[in-house]
Design brief:
This protein is mostly helical. 81% of the residues lie in helices and 0% in strands.
């Protein structure tokens, strides 16, 4: 018997990864803004008079450090949460099969504990280690209802908690547990089919968010590479010619370009969170989308 199957501790590194990511983000942001303020303080009066926008490259450098810090936070945390959710869904997908097998064993007169041990010989994908752990706990004298409760604590999803609670109450009340298991198995399968249909529908909106972000990025790219340089050129020519009429202040164009870069990063982070909420209904699941969009935005803005 594998003694590790008796380990009932719940290994969850979500908080650890989140704290490490937050510390990395704060440190990198502090470095970026420290370099910016140091550069601004070291600039001479002559440099400031010659180039009023001397601080814009420093600000963009600080922004890059901040975005890298956000990437350090969103990436590990977002992909770890996504991996956990994918693992949970894989467990839930095979749970109806396990409950059906336990119900079939119960129809032959086995107790709930005996039925779980018999069903543990089967293969249920990602669910198999959890079932073997339950069977090992029962072999060591843990009641079947307690083993099921510990299983629900490890997986800890609304679907699993609801099903396990019904099974435990039915077993405590007596009667035909097999019928209850069959009903719960059918209910779980229906719930997962509804969830799969919802995810398929919401994935369309996720694609729309990505397309909208790419369109926004392309628009900013065109403005920065064609429109604003032409405006700066026209402003310089107008200043050389002089005279009345409308004038163009070309000095603010680098500041406008900086605002565009900031707006790209804000859109990337916000759109990523929105994509996760629409897809799974959980904000944490959007972190991986924010990571992807921030990375695209960072690469695109440094190429311009």
């Amino acid at each position: 018997m594998d003694m590790r199957q008796l380990d009932i501790r719940k290994r969850d590194y979500t908080k650890t990864i989140m704290i490490i990511g937050l510390v990395a983000m704060i440190v990198l942001s502090a470095i970026g803004f420290g370099l910016m303020f140091t550069g601004m303080a070291n600039a001479t009066a002559e440099e400031k008079a010659k180039n009023p926008n001397f601080w814009v490259p420093l600000a963009r450098n600080a922004l890059s450090f901040t975005v890298i810090g956000l990437l350090a936070f969103c990436g590990p945390y977002g992909f770890y949460v996504a991996w956990k959710n994918r693992r949970t869904r894989a467990i839930e997908a095979r749970l109806p099969d396990f409950l059906r097998d336990v119900a079939e064993a119960g129809r032959f007169g086995m107790t709930l504990a005996e039925a779980i041990k018999v069903a543990s010989r089967g293969r249920y994908g990602m669910l198999t280690p959890e079932i073997k752990r339950m069977a090992s706990q029962i072999d060591w004298g843990v009641p079947a209802t307690e083993a099921l409760r510990l299983f629900a604590e490890r997986v800890n999803t609304p679907l699993v908690n609801r099903m396990i609670t019904i099974i435990i109450k039915a077993n405590d009340a007596g009667g035909s547990v097999a019928d209850v298991l069959t009903m719960v198995s059918h209910d779980a399968r229906e719930s997962m089919m509804d969830q799969a249909e919802r995810n398929m529908t919401m994935s369309t909106y996720t694609v729309v968010i990505y397309i909208a972000f790419m369109v926004f990025l392309a628009t900013i790219f065109i403005l920065n590479t064609t429109f604003l340089p032409q405006m700066a050129k026209a402003g310089g020519q107008a200043a050389d010619i002089g005279g009345g009429g409308a004038s163009i202040n070309a000095k603010v164009i680098p500041q406008v370009q900086l605002i565009f870069v900031i707006s790209i990063m804000i859109h990337a982070f916000g759109d990523g969170i929105l994509a996760g909420v629409l897809q799974d209904g959980v904000m944490a699941n959007g972190m991986r989308h924010s990571f992807i969009m921030l990375l695209i935005g960072l690469i695109a803005t440094n190429l311009v």
